[in-house]
């Protein structure tokens, strides 16, 4: 995943530079978005929305800040997505998407992935985001704080609570080392 | 706090889960089409100054410009102290309208309509102003969200005829990095017929901190 970062961005600026960046970044962003959303199609929608916004500002984003900009935009757009969904849930007697269940993406039957997805679904958006940025995007606490526009202490708190929830998850807890409680 | 073995197990689990995702080919044409449409919308002044964008579907077809309604005198500039509100605290805006803030953004309840939500951020923006306008029985209810650090002391809207309107400012405690404002319906700010779709007679929105220093400013094409 890390090696995909910043790939093929030497052609910036210009539409060709964006095309190369989008092609290189798309797989990584979709995978990150899938961990954030838990749904293959919502993940691709989220990344498409994010990249459309990036495209509209492409000429103004500093070359060395594209990755940080895109990651921050992805996280913020996901939070907006969840908020809108929450409002929709308040306005509708039921949510058709949820009633029907999410459409599974490729390989969604892989047990490890299903267990993790289920465990992550019980976390708040911020807790889930912190874990994805830390254990998939491999960011440190300072970098996560910058993405979320919060303090390092807040990141630590979200991490601690998220991990406690995962440890308490009946299926996912078996994935973790039994001796590693706090 | 975690132990290193647990960190490695978590990294492995996340990597394994992500690795099972097989993304579709990048829909580059659709992305660029949406990006160009977004750029055009911004270009006509829906949301300016730093690019903080409106999210309300009610106002996506609205832009800011034009001339004021005929016969409307310039408003007297009357400053109203900013209101520090708690999360979810509802503020009456007159004629049954209610505005409130959460940690995520601004909500407006217009009688007879769904709750309108505007997020405090769009993408990775760090400063800017946006405007939303909703048709109500007494004209247009204009509100907005600003992004930028500092306690807002006032938010001024300048109309095309030079009148400066002081809005009602709402902000959460501390320095949340954003806030909201609305134009009281008693003030002479209206939408007038113009070229499609509508014009609102605003040329500038300026947000100042409590010491009078600008936090962020937006100017709109006339």
Automatic annotation (TrEMBL), chain A:
Keywords: DNA-binding, Sigma factor, Transcription, Transcription regulation. One of its GO terms (molecular function) is sigma factor activity. InterPro entries: RNA_pol_sigma-70-like, RNA_pol_sigma-70_dom, RNA_pol_sigma-E_actinobac, RNA_pol_sigma70_r2, RNA_pol_sigma70_r4_t2, RNA_pol_sigma_r2, RNA_pol_sigma_r3/r4-like, WH-like_DNA-bd_sf. GO terms for biological process: DNA-templated transcription initiation. Residues 115-166 form the RNA polymerase sigma factor 70 region 4 type domain. Residues 27-86 form the RNA polymerase sigma-70 region domain. The keyword RNA-binding does not apply. SUPFAM superfamilies: Sigma2 domain of RNA polymerase sigma factors, Sigma3 and sigma4 domains of RNA polymerase sigma factors. It comes from the Bacteria. Belongs to the sigma-70 factor family. ECF subfamily. PANTHER family: ECF RNA POLYMERASE SIGMA FACTOR SIGM (PTHR43133:SF50), RNA POLYMERASE ECF-TYPE SIGMA FACTO (PTHR43133). This is RNA polymerase sigma-E factor.
UniProtKB/TrEMBL annotation, chain B:
The keyword Transmembrane helix applies. Keywords: Membrane, Transmembrane, Transmembrane helix. The chain crosses the membrane at residues 43-65. This is Uncharacterized protein. It comes from Actinacidiphila bryophytorum.
